[in-house]
Each structure stands twice: as C-alpha cells, then as structure tokens.
TrEMBL record:
CDD domains: AHBA_syn. One of its GO terms (biological process) is polysaccharide biosynthetic process. It comes from Brachybacterium paraconglomeratum. It is an enzyme of class 2 (transferase). Gene3D superfamilies: Aspartate Aminotransferase, domain 1 (3.90.1150.10), Type I PLP-dependent aspartate aminotransferase-like (Major domain) (3.40.640.10). Belongs to the DegT/DnrJ/EryC1 family. InterPro entries: DegT/StrS_aminotransferase, PseC, PyrdxlP-dep_Trfase, PyrdxlP-dep_Trfase_major, PyrdxlP-dep_Trfase_small. This is UDP-4-amino-4, 6-dideoxy-N-acetyl-beta-L-altrosamine transaminase.
Amino acid sequence: MLPYGRQSIEPDDIAAVEAALRSDWLTTGPEVDRFEAAIAERAGVEHAVSVTSGTAALHVAYAAAGIEPGDEVVTTPLTFVATAAGAALHGAKIVFADVDPATGNLDPAAVEAAVTERTKVIAGVDYAGVPVDGTALREIASRQGALFLEDAAHSIGSTQDGAPVGSLADLTTYSFFPTKNLTTAEGGAVVTADADLAARARAFKNHGLVRDKAVQRYPDEGPWHQEVHSFGLNYRLPDVLCALGTSQLARLDAFVARRAEVKKAYDEALGDLEGVDIPGVPEGAAPAWHLYPLRVPAERRRAIFEAMREQGIGVQVNYIPAYWHPVFEDLGYQRGMCPVAEDYYRREISLPMFPGLTDHDVERVIEVTRKVVAG
C-alpha cells in the first residue's frame, strides 16, 4: 500500500540521533537550544519553544495567549480536532467560522461575522500547507483586541509574499509528526516575535517553574529553589528528538521542492477530470504542500476512496468537520453550521504526498485516480 504520507529518514538523521544518545544529555540539553534557534531563524522570528507535539503546541500557545473560561476562540472546522480542543481545554467557547471554497482556509468574511467583544484569539489553519490570509485575519484580530494564531501544522516551509510562515501571526504553531513537512518523530513548536508570549509559552510547557530569583517570592530558600506561580504541564521535547529535527531542517527546502513537483504533476494530470477540483493557491502564496486535497463528486467519494485503497493507493480524508465529533455535538454544536466546510469535507480525498514518492509512484497514483474517478 502506497501511504498518503511518510517520513523521510536518511543516514544524517540517524547519525544525529546516535550522537545525541551518546552524549551526556537525553533531554533539556544543548540539542534543544540548537533546534529552537534553527526553528526561530527559519520562521523569521526571535523566539521558538519546542514541545512534544503539534497538539501540545496549540495548548501551550492558547495558554500563552491567556485563554480563560468565558473567552471565545474563532477557528475553522476544517482541521484536526486539536485546533479547537487546545482552546476548549482552557475553558474557551469555540466559535466555528466557514472556509474559502478554493483553499479550505478560514474565510475572513466569515470570521468578521463571528467575532464578538469576547473574542480572545482568531486561530487560522494553513490547510494542506496553503497560508491563511494572515493580513486580513490579523487586522480583524487587532480591531477586536484579540491575538491572531496561525496553526501551521501543515506549512513549515511555506511563504506568503516572500515572508515565511511563522512571521505572519502573533503566535504560530508547528507539528513535526512523521507525515508533516519535517519530523522529530513526535514534536511541535510555538514561534513568536513577542518576548512576553514566548516567556509564557516556555513557562507553561515546563510546569510553570520559576527559577529566576529576581521574580521568585522566596528567593532566599536556597540554591536548589524553584517555584510555580501558575500551573503548567510537562511538554518538553527531548534532546534526542531535537537532534533529529535539526538534521531534518537542513533538508526542508529539498522536501518542499519535491512536494511542489508532485503537486504540479497531479494538477496537470487530474485537472481535466469532470466533477473534480484541484487545490487552489492564493496570489503570493508559495505552499509547502503537506496534503494534496482532491475534491471529487460527493455522492461517489466513498466508492472512490475504497476503490483506490483496494488498488494499493493509501488515500486519506482530511478532515471530519471538528464540530461533528460527539464531544462538540454534546455541547450543542449542530451539523450545517459551516456549509462550505462540510461540502469540502464530503468531496475531499487526500492523494499520497511526501518527498519520497518516486516519479513511478506519482504516475501510478495518477493512473489509478483517473481510472477510478472516471468510473
């Protein structure tokens, strides 16, 4: 079965991990500092906080934003549930806004209609690797006195008008899961240009511990002393995984380039199929394609999905609208709230997309897709 996504591990990655294993540090050591500095540089900001997953990154980012019960977070339903869950776990009310039918990204007009005086964060998701309209979303957030968070789990390596994803929002979160654009096995990061947001993120991911005597309440307790001033969790990414991430980051441009080649081949081969839509790209965007979201006739999507899997093409569907999950249904959210996102989901199939795809693999995917979709 040809998977829809897969990590790319080379000897340099293995050597980096082995070196970390042979060092004096397995966690919270020099490889963490090195990886965070490299991620911050790639994002075009001063601060990067590594964490244990993309989900942890969202939870940490919402903590840094000061989300509390009664606050509202406006976000998209066309995402993995973690984008909403990370805020809900801090007590926020999630307000879902609809998406742009061309890209699957959060529609600024829908966000404008959804914000209230209680809106604390607007959280856009770079669906499939395509950057959200950061200019519009940040402007709306600023007018409301809110923060703009960019869930860039799909899009490290993407740019908008030449600016890297990571520099476009108040807070940006990355995921380094194996299918993502680079991997640390499990892992993620929060990046920001704001020193205060970075400090709050770093505290929350490390139990809320305060070691700086200048701000401790009881600094004379002893040289071992540390305090917790606000609750946090242990989301520390270990040195071993950070070593893998730094090695992977050196090949990110090559990963992005190969993904673009695969995307172009799919576009050229599948764009003429009746009833099919290929992914759109906004002006000025240079996506690092994490997914290739093909849209097929809704009434045939399941049959197409099953037929392609039977022929060895490991397609996927991304994503079930977040509020369709029973956890949101039980809170009163109802189907039909975001019709564009729901239509996108009903038609979407993700074709294999990863740097290790050979030209032969791509030709095979195209051949099977054309045959199955054409009926």
